[in-house]
Design goal:
This protein is 38% helix and 22% strand. Strands 1, 2, 3, 4, 5, 6, 7, 8 and 9 form a nine-stranded mixed beta sheet that branches. The protein has a single domain, classed as Spore Coat Polysaccharide Biosynthesis Protein SpsA, Chain A.
Length: 248
């Protein structure tokens, strides 16, 4: 079972190497690694070139944002399973992909897998800022603002071909729309793994406080787009986030 991992990046010279190393150090053998760079100008490309012979596909060209870049990666991915490794993040340990593959191999009914993650400080100390436990999946939880942590989600490639890529109508929180479409609209069969999959650094596009309000507004539009109670879902989603900071 081949697993495709896609990393998209733009000007991530400080973090891209750890992301790459965490993928290359996985103990699962059948990994297709794809990097889509937005034509970085800060030395990111030079770091990627150091590992070029270990990267399956590498594209560096201008794009219109992270979701267009992810869609480029999905277009060339040939794995049975597809997941993301953001350029600010890294795997929690070296056997994450092995755990994920085992779950898919255990049952043909499993269409997607997700796990847990932690948010860490963007420095050498890597202090835990927030703990993100996925918990078991249910439609009721989705209606109340719950979604799995996006970088922990791995989905069968044939489902992505069936249900579509990331919606470029949404520029900041298209991952929310993607997950709602797959989990809420199409009810794909998800399996939760009670294990940490990723370490995410505070300060990336999705975690920057400067973008928090924009994400909030786009989340609201996305929940409305899927005909959910947007105010309730977004409010409860943000409340859950606050609780995670308190409980860290």
């Amino acid at each position: 079972m081949k697993v495709s991992i896609i990393t998209i990046c733009y000007n991530r010279v400080k973090t891209i190497e750890k992301a790459i190393q965490s993928v290359l150090s996985q103990d699962y053998e059948d990994i297709e690694y794809i990097i889509i760079d937005g034509k970085s100008k800060d030395g990111t490309q030079q770091i990627i070139e150091k590992y070029r012979n270990q990267i399956t596909n590498y594209i560096s060209e201008p794009d219109n944002g992270m979701y267009e870049a992810i869609n480029k990666g999905l277009a060339i991915a040939t794995g049975d399973i597809v997941g993301l490794m953001h350029s600010d993040d890294e795997f929690y340990d070296n056997n994450v992909i092995s755990k994920i593959a085992e779950v898919f191999k255990a049952s043909n009914l499993t269409e997607g897998v997700y796990g847990d993650g932690i948010y860490i400080s963007n420095d050498d100390k890597e202090k835990i800022i927030r703990n993100r436990i996925g918990g078991e999946f249910s439609i009721d939880k989705i209606e109340n603002g719950w979604l799995p942590l996006h970088p922990t989600v791995y989905i069968k490639k044939n489902l992505i071909e069936k249900y579509g890529n990331y919606n470029l109508q949404f520029k900041i929180a298209s991952d929310t729309e993607f997950l709602l479409r797959y989990l809420y609209k199409y009810h794909i069969k998800m399996t939760y793994v009670n294990a940490y999959f990723v370490k995410m650094r505070i300060g990336g596009l999705s975690t920057s406080r400067k973008r928090a309000f924009e994400v909030l507004k786009e989340d609201y539009k996305i929940y409305k787009f899927h005909r959910l109670s947007a105010f309730k879902a977004v409010l409860l989603k943000k409340l859950k986030t606050l609780i995670q900071y308190i409980k860290r």
